[in-house]
Amino acid sequence: MQIATIQGETRNAGGRHANRRLRKQGLVPAVIYGHGQTPETIALSRHDLVLAIEHMSHVINVAVDKQETQYLLKDVQYDHLQHEPIHADLMRVNPDERVNVNVGIEFRGEPHGIHEGGELIQVLTDLDIECPLLNIPEVLRVEIDHLGVGQALHVGDLELPEGISTRHGPDDVVATVRAKRGGLGTVEEEAEPEAEVTGTEPEVIGRTAKEEESKGAGEG
Amino acid sequence: MAANMPKRVKWRKCQKGRIRGNACRGNSVSFGEYGLQTVDPGRITSRHIEAGRVAATHFLHREGRVYVRLFPHKPISSKPLETRMGKGKGETAIWAALVKPGTVMFEIGGVAEEVAKEALLRIAHKMPVRTRFIARRHAV
User: What is the pLDDT of residue B80?
Assistant: First the structure.
């Protein structure tokens, strides 16, 4: 597990305008909470934060006034285009503490059911796990070669590393290979032109048959 | 055939309205792995949606899955040609979905990134708004 270091600075002014000024300077407002202590507000370097997220770091070192402290990156908010982070939540943690985090699931191999005409449907993309702070995996790699058509991979089938448990039920489906819908004729069906929208109208809720008739007569 | 208008409505016609602000919901990839996001506000008509869906499914040769996250809920009325003004509001001509900047309109899953990018580019050519390609962001 990588622990990225992010440069930060203390932040006293809160509110929309102050935060907007921070973002213009290349900083991201953040809050630190947890362990029953008073929440603190800081500002993080956006560049460092983006790099940490790209490297899937859940635990980060924040350097404020040449003093480094370890936090769990609990949540990140993005702008409306999901492009740049606009706020981050950091949680105080102890190194020997067990934490709940979401870790991505990465499939290895190709299910043999795909060669039999099936398609792979990934139901779960992240797994909610509980593990020691310094033992958070970057990603959970799962072999799916053995899946045939109509078969599914459940959470109970996953071989999780030692000391890691999941909060999902063992019967929750991670991925399934299902037969493709329809036969070969479906392609033609999909390619056919749509029906004319004009001329057909949806049913109006609450309108009686009499009103429909009078409307039709009025139009005619 | 894909649904291109509601089955039942409470009112046959509605006012024009304005599209203000950015999308604060429906702005992340939720079903597939890759998505096509609008960066402009606009009206996506049922014809645009259907053209995009057909273009993507045709390109993908039934590989992967295409998710359409738009539905044309809004009736757009128009007056017939060579008609004088007045005499009431025109009849519904088209149905459209209103999108705000950030709305993810289409998603694709089960294919490689390059293939998804090419398929979404074909959809983008059918759209009346500027778009961008985005990938699913895993939870922190």
Answer: 94
